[in-house]
Design a protein that fits this description.
It is a single chain. By secondary structure, the chain is α/β, with parallel strands linked by helices. β8, α13 and β9 form a beta-alpha-beta unit. The protein has 13 helices and 9 strands. The protein has 2 domains: about 30 residues; about 290 residues, sialyltransferase cstii, chain A (Alpha-Beta Complex). It binds 2-acetamido-2-deoxy-beta-D-glucopyranose (NAG) (3 copies). One 2-acetamido-2-deoxy-beta-D-glucopyranose (NAG) binds next to loops. Belongs to the glycosyltransferase 29 family.
Length: about 325
Amino acid sequence: MSVRCHRSKLSVWAVLCVLVLCWLYIFPVYRLRNDKEIVDEVLRQGQVWQRNQTDIDLFRKLLSECCDPRRMFAVTKQNSPMGKVLWYDGEFYHSHTVNNETYSLFVQETPLQHPLKKCSVVGNGGVLKHSGCGKDIDQADFVMRCNLPPLSREYVEDVGSRTNLVTANPSIIEKRFQNLLWSRKSFVESMKAYGSSYIYMPAFSMKPGTDPSLRAHYALTDTSSNLTMLFANPEFLRTVGKFWKGRGVHAKRLSTGLFLVSLALGLCEEVTAYGFWPFSVGLDEQPVSHHYYDNVLPFSGFHAMPEEFVQLWQLHKSGTLRMRVGHCPPREGAI
Ligand SMILES: *[C@@H]1O[C@H](CO)[C@@H](O)[C@H](O)[C@H]1NC(C)=O
Ligand SMILES: *[C@@H]1O[C@H](CO)[C@@H](O)[C@H](O)[C@H]1NC(C)=O
Ligand SMILES: *[C@@H]1O[C@H](CO)[C@@H](O)[C@H](O)[C@H]1NC(C)=O
């Protein structure tokens, strides 16, 4: 009797331990400064910013050592030959072995080998509304955007119109384009907003994302679209995730924005980030919508946006990249 009691007590403790461990995994114990403190600090700093070449070079070195963005950011024929096993970075123990069919969809080698000069990375935050940053964003040599954002005329003044690389989450293909199982026309039409840019899809991150990504690729090539599909390399996504985890970002998954900033810091000489502002109140204490085009909140607990912002803000303060929050100053020469 007492033995049985002892045993059941033991298993209760075991269950409790597991629960606590799971809880800590999902909600790690760390103190995050509250939003108000961060906003106040950003206000104090104002638009002051000084580029620090030492820190830029150092950060690029760290990134290339951990993640080799130049060679690894996309799946290519070179880094993923026939028979290579690609392990999904967003799933436990799922893989895809490169076969004839998928191999033929990969680009030969990573484009963008040579260093890019000025890059704009555009997050889709509501702070971009009425920012007047469109011209600033567009004057960079390379413009990166997240998740197929709308670029229609009403937004151009605030977000610009040029795109060189845009990410697309497979879930958008599912929601907005019926998973491309029916007509592909509306997909192909709406992709024209991105000119002849690269479209960057995490095809090998989650199992359900693979087929929609491949279909998007077929839809583009079958219609001789000007866009070039690049599949995100799951190995790169994993190493970048680890890199930021080591620097204190405790998200289960990094946001697309932080991936793009990491990519930009690895590829570009000068990076400016726009529209990264995960707070519901702006610098002018006015409410800010979640995106510049809508106010749909993401599934909470998945990304750690304020935490990511603090990291980016550190890089801003050290002069490694420039964060634009709030309005862009009128362009020089313009009166
Ligand atoms: C750049 O950063 C390094 C180290 O973080 C520092 O030692 C150096 O003084 C900074 N340079 C400038 C010009 O601020
Ligand atoms: C792959 O395709 C090539 C040419 O299309 C063909 O010669 C080869 O037999 C195929 N290999 C397999 C494993 O299907
Ligand atoms: C591709 O670009 C060319 C030249 O810019 C343009 O004339 C053509 O209409 C574009 N094609 C598609 C499918 O968007």
